[in-house]
Design brief:
The protein has an eight-stranded mixed beta sheet, sandwiched between helices. The protein is globular. The chain is of the alpha/beta class. It has helices at about 5-10, 60-75, 100-110, 115-130, 165-170, 185-195, 225-235, and strands at about 20-25, 30-35, 50-55, 75-80, 140-145, 155-160, 175-180, 200-205. It has one domain (about 5-235): Rossmann fold, CATH 3.40.50. The protein is built from seven helices and eight strands; from the N terminus they run αβββαβααββαβαβα. A hairpin with a 2-residue loop joins β1 and β2 (about 30-35). The model is unreliable at about 40, about 155-160 and about 240-250 (pLDDT under 50).
Amino acid sequence: MSCEACRTIPPVVPTGYTANGRYLDIAGIKTWFVDDPADVTGPETASVGILGVYDAFGLASQTLQGADRLASQLDALVLVPDFFRGDAAQPAWFSLDPEERSRVLTKFMGGTAALPQNSEVLIAIMAASKARFTAVQTWGAYGLCWGGKVGRDVRTHVNILRLEKVDAERLTIPHIVLASKDEPADVVKEYSQIISGNGIGGHVETYSSMWHGWMGARAQLEDEHGCAEYIRGCVLSEFPPIQLNSPGQPRS
């Protein structure tokens, strides 16, 4: 069961932003690709790669803008696969009566957005990406809401679909959690205690003025405070250029 905010807050449809990247085919999946636009050497020499897993609303403008920002700030290539193949959750669903909305969302989460099948897609995309971008020495991953639950390889949660203590206990690499005011405070506290004491490293922070999804398709970038917190979240989500146990292993 996802959090109530995830099921009731509609996405924001922004205007005026032109994304910097382009689409590639990675493992048969349409994938948004962006590298540092100031890097004239191109993606073949990027040493840091990041795989972004979007929220239930798919390739939203705010999600692509976040990918662009990470690529520019980290001199990295960023990939955002279209797991839903164009069939993402629709804003119109949130104007339905509660019973019908619940039915539609439950069907979506158990079908197109089912976690097991999409975790397999994630594994295939990671393998294909490592084979294609051979200059990348360090891979990272982040997930927005739904994306934070797709497979154990996605190790950064931003706007959590369903934060669970067991996920924190399974961590083997540094992990960042940026929660909103809509996440259960007791579970966030448990998560923080586990991460602070596991000897691996990480960061847990609640953005007390932000709503569920403020870093994804629900981001309100035309609002001064909403935009400022979105940017702050992108900065905190940056992946330091550290070497993992083995090249190409996902990290956060």
